[in-house]
Amino acid sequence: MRAMKKAGIGLALIGNIVPSTHHNANYPYGDVKFMSEEWWDILHTALKTATELDIEIGIFNSPGWSQSGGPWVTPEQSMRYLAATEINVSGPRKITELLPATTNDFQDVKVLAFQASRENMFDYPNSSITVSRNIKKGTDASYELPVNEESYILLTLPEEATARGIMVHSGDFLNTRCMIQVREGNEFITIKEFTAERDVTILTARGFDQKAPVVESLPETAGKEFRLLFYKSEFVLENIPDGKLYIDLGEVSVSAKIKINGQCVGGVWTAPYRVDITDGVRTGKNEIEIEVVNTWINRIFGDRKLLENEQKVVPHTAPWSLDAPLQKSGLLGPVRVISIKYFYKECLQNKLPILSFNM
Q1: Within 10 Å of residue 288's Cβ, how many Cβ atoms?
Q2: Would you say the pTM of this structure is higher than 0.90?
Q3: Where are the alpha helices (DSSP H) in the chain?
Q4: Can 120-232 and 234-308+326-359 be said to share one CATH topology?
Q5: How far apart are CA 153 and CA 140, in angstroms?
Q6: Is 279 helix (H, G, I), strand (E, B) or coil?
Q7: Nearest to 219 by CA among 159, 294, 299, 118
């Protein structure tokens, strides 16, 4: 497990697997019996070591076929998938309706009610779309994103409108981090960050439809200019440079935690928003994960503009005016990976060591 950590592996699965009885297989039973005291001691040691090394552990049961199961497993205990049915209703009024069942054997999970109309802001009259120079614009509102470069799509509306969600339709392959932003004055404020990932080479039988759009709900946000920013969450090192490697987040509101290849390397909550990642990197591809936490101030500002019965957050004090602007929130960037080499040299005049660095 320590070798896994050194190699940058941050996740492991422990499977209880019966040896195959296939005529071509030759996998005999091991010396440690399943569920024995020795087995429990080994499992306990593995979990304890994983905790110390910050490695996530999952445990699954596989008795020799594709999934656990058998005739002794009743439907309510079996593995299942989410399915949905829907009805359209009009309001405002109290609704009492019987929803159709998806199958004979089902279990209610949740009932969702939402506004059915989905207005596409890109179809608004007199709206304009601007893209960064490194994006190739195709037909039918299709765009080809550059590889390993930051890019954006900017939507400008003729008048203010409220965004409640975003839907991204992918081509055959998409793997990027996204940031949806709204312009407030001279700055863009981040509404939400998310990952957009699709790959048609993955068979539907092994997961969801890879052609399905990426859909993200947004807190209700009004504005005239919305920007969808695309950026990569990985970088490649051909070799480990001398000195120290840092990730510089530019500007963050309010705090952030950074993981490199699944390993937490530190957090920041004040300028300079910079963390030493030297011990977390490796040659080749390195994955960056940045978790950002902000305050509820913008949520409170938004709720103050709603009717009292529609407000979700009610502060004990409200020192802000109703026209207070949204505050900076999220990862504002720019994000950079920088190399710094420290070295001492003797000052010729006073013979004192001074510290300098190269970037």
Answers
A1: 20
A2: no
A3: 2-6, 37-53, 297-304
A4: yes
A5: 15
A6: helix
A7: 299
Tell me which residue of 13, 55, 7, 12 sits closest to 280, measured CA to CA: 7
CATH number assigned to the domain covering 120-232: 2.60.120.260
Task: Tell me which residue has tokens 């957050």.
Answer: 313
8 A C-beta contact, residue 289 and residue 258 = yes
Q: What is the pLDDT of residues 41-75, one digit of tens each?
A: 999 999 999 988 888 888 876 554 445 556 667 76
Evaluate whether 85 touches 100 at the Cβ level (below 8 Å). yes
The Cα–Cα gap between 284 and 200 comes to: 25
- Domain borders along the chain are 2-65, 120-232, 234-308+326-359
Name the pLDDT band for 210 (thresholds 50, 70, 90): confident
What's the token pair of residue 63?
């008795």
In degrees to the nearest 10, what's the CA dihedral of 47, 48, 50, 52? 160
Please tell me the class of the 234-308+326-359 domain.
mainly beta
Could you give the count of Cα atoms lying within 13 Å of 296 in the half-sphere of its Cβ?
Answer: 8
Rg of the chain in Å (alpha carbons): 27
The DSSP symbol for 301 reads H
Report the C-alpha gap between 143 and 161 in whole angstroms: 24
Amino acid of residue 192: K
pLDDT value of position 67: 53
The residues, any chain, with a CB within 8 Å of residue 30's CB and separated by 6 or more, are none
Residue reference for tokens 């009009």: 90
Closest CA to 165 of 112, 221, 225, 217: 217
pLDDT of residue 160: 92
CA atoms within 13 A of residue 96's CA, in its CB half-sphere: 0
Q: Residue 7 carries which side chain, given as an amino acid letter?
A: A
129-139 residue pLDDT tens:
999 998 988 77
Tell me the helix, strand and coil percentages in the chain, rounded to 5: 15, 40, 50
